[in-house]
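#dry-run=false #mode=assembly
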Amino acid sequence: MITVKFEVNNIEREIEVRDNETLLETLRERLKLIGTKEGCGKGECGACTVMIDGKPVASCLVLTGQVEGKSIVTIEGIGDVENPHVIQQSYIDEGAIQCGFCIPGMVVSSYALLKEKPEPSEEEIKDALSGNLCRCTGYRKIIAAVKTAGKKIKETGVEL
Amino acid sequence: MKNLQLIKSDNLSELLELLKKEERKYNIIAGGTDVMVLLKEFLIDPQCLYDVSGLSELKEILVDNDSIEIGSAVTMSDIISDSEVSRYAPVLVSALKEVGSPLIRNRATLGGNVGNSSPAGDSIPALFVLNARVNIVSEGNERSVKIEDFILGPRRNVLEKGEIIKSFVIDKMGTDERSFFLKAGSRNALAISKANLAFRFMLKDNLVKSMNLSFGSVGPVVIKSTMIPQLFIGKKPDPGLIDKSCSLVSEEIKPIDDFRSTAKYRVKVLENLLRKCLDEFC
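#status=ok
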């Protein structure tokens, strides 16, 4: 076991984890942040997307021991049912959610993109979400949701 | 995933010292985008992992007069967004943009892609045409080998116990040189190459002054083309030469049938990728 000190959704954590424990396992099983999903478990589906120091990554391929001193943001750090983030609300408004399993990862990737590029082109949206698979929607409404979110962020001046 | 020990250090010499003394089976981990998959699928069986992702000595990009040195633990995203690498080694940036997805590229490193030594590693053909040298370091010792001598076979390379990749030194391309990286996979993102190529050339007075060409995923290791550059150098490219060079592709590569593609398809698609590059000549 190793002790790791890191920040999750702006809260300092110091926890003991197994050496072979993935960040995904720590988030879901120890911290009960179950918004982050496990899909393929090998970095191909994006259901487990979280941000490490602002960059979206597949948390199933990260060992928790590797995130010492880092800042992690999960879907819970972006918004919740009572206070959905403008990105989450845009996904709802555009009808971009069907089964919903991929959506936490999609929203995290969308957040990372919009923080970098508030007005992304369609190509940039497709590229930013290319690691997040959705088997329901056909992506059109997801892309529309990111565009809408970008516009709303610009209009309202919400800081990401 | 089996039990193992994770060993971290933020000091290169300390890590090398530990590695030298290590008697157990180990793997080096940086971004983990290959190592973690191999571990989960029980394709590697280390007793410990040495994490190099925290070593600042391996995370620098240094630009010199005629070369660029890229640290082995620099992430692919950081290489892609580096303005000097984009300007002087665009073929490497094109190749790295084809790797996985942003989620993968934010973790994956150049050292990992080369250290994994897969015949399908997308960065490797680009490193071939940039005449890359691999700087290897171990406790009290450093050596440098050409990229084509570094990889010995599928997932086999010259690294010995206690050694890690420190950095890569690549050519700075001239402003009069052009380059391409082209890849055929099952889809755009998250697809491992069925075949790929990196191409670098310079035309002067309509004649081919220099040409570097390499093929990936079509043999046990990345293949450096010798016949095709020989055919073109000193000549004015024309449709006849292009047809002839495409017919040489099958003589230079050794593709196999596997779960990802067939040898027959790989030959055909690589000929087509090459034609796409060479058509730029005319």
